[in-house]
Structure to design on (412 residues):
């Protein structure tokens, strides 16, 4: 399994079930993702104990470094430990529940906090002034045990019953129940049973649910996909017809309620006769066949991992472009960058040149596009011979009277 996750993204202190303590873990991914600015959800990550090598899978949306808009952001400020602003959730130690700060006023000796609990009448607290200079968790805390189901790995927590701060370090199953593991400030480990709604389904049940969903959504393909389950995670194996289908299966499984995420070990079925050049030509042909005008196209394929850069006019981006490229035989992975050009250059001149080229007898049966980026004019599309390629260049040269032309015509 480790070889499938070659990239170490992050190091985090997590609970190891073999060491029975919190150790440094490498957090590995299959691609070189960055955690800066937040990671997209549903990316499987392999967490590997640096001391003993024991591994488990968790997903990017279960970690504190996930993109903020993808995970629950209900953090509570603890009075006396956080700076407070209107709109924050606030919790006073020893009380029953948190409320929302309606207003906060700090005078020279005392401070006044107006708090609303569950939409009832506002309550005003006059308290002696506390200056919080250093915040361990500026964003606030997960209030435990109530918020155990929302807690992310690495979150700062406050355990209200034990009156202790700490961090969330793991999700484990003790053979009966799924539990959140937290490390308290005094070094004590606490295992909090997750609420019944957050408990993972038994493996066989989860497998059956995923299989029947796949049978329903992908009736022609589901029998080639095998499903295994473990602690709420679906592991998919098998051969799929193309990359788009692979992504669609993954998306479908991730959307099933009670699935924590899926680890996709499926492979795209590729004939050994398909080369990267075949793939590149097929992508170019697709870009040229679209109704939308695509230009400044760059396509690279290395072992079926395809990178496409292309441009179109503003608000004309074809919606299903990635999907259609993913259906091309041989594509195993895809990065597609589309630039929407808001103020295209020399549009009329390019159009005139295109018309001239298309009516040219020598260039019959060819497909030629002319566009202009900041540096030069681009000749794109295909011709059938070197002579035609040169002829197109000369014809354009005469028309636009500049040598700043890049001749990207393909000969097919
Ligand atoms: Zn270990």
């Amino acid at each position: 399994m480790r070889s499938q996750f070659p990239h170490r993204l992050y190091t985090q202190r997590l609970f190891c079930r073999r060491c029975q303590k919190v150790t440094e873990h490498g957090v590995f991914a299959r691609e070189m993702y960055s955690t800066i600015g937040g990671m997209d959800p549903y990316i499987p990550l392999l967490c590997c104990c640096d001391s003993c090598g024991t591994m488990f899978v968790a997903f990017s949306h279960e970690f504190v470094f996930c993109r903020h808009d993808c995970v629950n952001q209900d953090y509570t400020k603890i009075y006396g430990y956080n700076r407070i602003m209107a709109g924050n959730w606030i919790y006073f130690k020893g009380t029953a529940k948190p409320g929302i700060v309606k207003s906060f006023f700090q005078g020279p000796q005392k401070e006044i906090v107006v708090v609303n609990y569950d939409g009832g009448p506002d309550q005003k607290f006059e308290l002696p002034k506390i200056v919080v200079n250093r915040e361990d968790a500026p964003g606030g805390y997960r209030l435990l045990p109530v918020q155990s189901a929302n807690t992310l790995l690495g979150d700062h927590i406050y355990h209200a019953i034990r009156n202790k701060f700490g961090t969330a370090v793991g999700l484990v199953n003790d053979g009966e129940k799924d539990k959140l593991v937290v490390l308290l400030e005094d070094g004590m480990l606490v295992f909090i049973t997750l609420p019944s709604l957050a408990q993972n389904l038994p493996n066989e049940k989860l497998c059956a649910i995923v299989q029947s969903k796949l049978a329903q959504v992908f009736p022609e393909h589901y029998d080639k996909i095998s499903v295994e389950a473990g602690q709420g995670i679906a592991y998919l194996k098998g051969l799929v017809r193309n990359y788009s289908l692979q992504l669609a299966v993954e998306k479908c499984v991730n959307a099933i309620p009670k699935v924590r995420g899926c680890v996709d070990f499926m492979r795209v079925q590729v004939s050994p006769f398909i080369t990267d050049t075949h793939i590149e030509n097929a992508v170019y042909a697709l870009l040229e066949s679209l109704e939308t005008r695509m230009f400044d196209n760059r396509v690279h394929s290395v072992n079926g991992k395809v990178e496409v850069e292309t441009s179109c006019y503003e608000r004309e981006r074809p919606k299903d472009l990635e999907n259609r490229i993913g259906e091309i035989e041989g594509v195993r992975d895809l990065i597609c960058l589309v630039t929407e050009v808001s103020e295209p250059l020399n549009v009329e001149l390019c159009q005139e040149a295109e018309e001239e080229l298309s009516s040219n007898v020598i260039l019959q049966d060819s497909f030629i596009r002319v566009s202009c980026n900041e540096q030069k004019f681009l000749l794109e599309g295909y011709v059938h011979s070197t002579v035609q390629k040169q002829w197109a260049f000369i014809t354009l040269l005469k028309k636009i009277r500049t040598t700043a032309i890049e001749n990207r015509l393909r000969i097919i």
